[in-house]
Amino acid sequence: MTVVIVRYFGKLRELIGAKTEEYALNEGATVTDLLVRHIPERHLEISRVWVETLFRTIKNEVIQNKNGTPVLKNYMIVVNGKTAKLEDSLKEGDEVTIMPPFGGG
Predict the structure, then answer these.
(1) CA angle 101, 88, 53 (to 5 degrees)
(2) What would the pLDDT profile of 54-77 be if each residue is shown by its tens digit?
């Protein structure tokens, strides 16, 4: 098993009701596995809202890229301080941060 820490901000923190959580994943699990399967399974009561908040959907179906990964809305996924791709594998002790859209100007 691979244990990772997930940090939430903004609306996702409000949905989950926590700043951080630990997840035990199978070896070779990807960022997609964490976001699409593990987090919604732990939080069944908000799983639909989670998916609709994080990913682009059409008629309740998540839109996928040509490589089969879901299309994020304006969120950025950071693993250990570096921008990650959804197909990246996670390793023991990784810290996954889900950064919400932010404005500036």
Answers:
(1) 30
(2) 999 998 889 999 988 999 999 999
Q: What is the pTM of this model?
A: 0.92
Give the range of the structural domain holding residue 90, as residue numbers without chain letter.
2-99
Length of the chain: 105
Round to whole Å and give the CA distance between 26 and 1. 5
Q: Cβ neighbours of residue 9 under 8 Å, at least 6 residues apart?
A: 97, 98, 99, 100
Q: What is the mean pLDDT of residues 18-31?
A: 97
CATH assignment at residue 91: 3.10.20.30
Q: Of 41, 3, 44, 1, whose CA–CA distance to 20 is shortest?
A: 3
How are beta strands 76-79 and 61-62 bridged, if at all?
A: unpaired
Measured at the alpha carbon of residue 29, what is the angle toward residues 28 and 31, in degrees to the nearest 5? 130
For β-strands 82-83 and 76-79, DSSP reports them as antiparallel
Q: Within a domain: residue 55?
A: yes
